[in-house]
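Issue 218. Parser rejects a valid record. Input:
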Amino acid sequence: MVKRVNWRVSAALSPVRAEVRATLGVAAPLIVANLAQMAMGFTNTVMVGRLGSGALAAAGLGGLLYFTSGFVLQGVISAAAPLAAHALGAGDRAAAGRVGRLGLVFAVVLSLPLAAAAINLRSMLLALGYETALADQIGRFLGAVVWGAPAFLGFAALRNLLAALSHTRAVMTVLMCCVPANAALNWVLIYGHLGAPPLGVAGAGIASAIVQWLMFGGLALYISAMRSVRTLLAFGRTRALDWHDVKDLLRLGAPIGGILALEVGVFVAAGVLVGLISADALGANQIVFNVASLTFMVPMGVSQAATVRCAFELGAQRPDGAWRAARVALALGVSFMAAAAIVLWSAPRAIVAVYLDVDAAANHDVVAIATRLMFIAALFQVFDGTQTVAAGALRGYKDAAIPMVIAGIGYWGIGFVGGALLAFPLGYGAIGLWWGLALGLAVVAMLLGMRLFRLGRSTTPSVLPRLAAGANVNDKG
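Output the parser choked on:
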């Protein structure tokens, strides 16, 4: 017999303490993995930046477009995590295996439009009026990095399955090993060391593509070495697709990808608007956005854990356990973000000093704007933590369509529109834009929190058979 996932812990622990341990057991390695991915992005920026502002702009914009698009597509594939966890909770390992294999199929299929868009982006940029030299550099970067697209999405598929199985330490280990590998490959391929020709921006793209394959290969090797996981996924088994599983994954994955597109898109669009204000405002925006992204990695990991914990408990016919898992995850995520808010509020200038010389006269305006933005970022930390953990828990309930609508209204209808009005017609600049984003985050956090509270309190054993059949807990029937 293959050993089942053991989410249970010592009976001597209270249910809440047991849930804290179970959630942290999944979340902590994912948090480290998220931070490792950020470290790789930081390394790329620093190493390409030594080539000059043109190369930095090309790799920065090219990387933003490629990885943002890939991140949204990973969101579609991420539906495999709650679906597999729900099946495991119900003791249906065959269904979990089918979902895991389907995630890999989706990774291959979705990599095709991602690659096509990346290859054709140069022509689109030229049509938009970009300088030929800059468009050419962006095209060279994308033409290289796109070879990693199948691995980039395939890694997400394997990570989702391992999260459902509570094997997240493997994800952490692989990504931590890839951080130095990424730096070494950049050093060799960008600058031309160890006999390699200096490839510049294209070298950065090749290095990123190789690292993506290393990430995918690392998880694949781990799975092949672990009999319990290998037999579940059943590599090499040929089987026709189960169209019921395809429907379930698309039904949940499409709105998850939509939520991510709305959330990431609003901050990208805000960055574009800030660039219309001034170069100093754009620099300050980049600094504070980077800091906020760093703190966000922790509740993001907790959110990923909340998804599989809630789904597993629901699959095991324990709605009270799912509601407890959601509350514990919220408490963990909000507690960290409250602590982060205190740090950002109390030491904004010291944080800005990590990025630039705060005493230099040339940086005076950037520092002034960044410190004011840091106060706003401090205020929305708790809201940001609440919305991402609540969204993750709701995915465990197979609930993503309504959260996508909430995200659209909050991020764009309130946050972006309100911020743009404050920034331009009312003349508050970058400060006004960030106040609008903060208001949008607060609205999304409150609405998602209220929805999670209603679903968590109202889900009873009578609705679980419909949930197991792929329905949302709110579906009638």
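Fixed in the parser; the record now loads. The mean pLDDT is 87.
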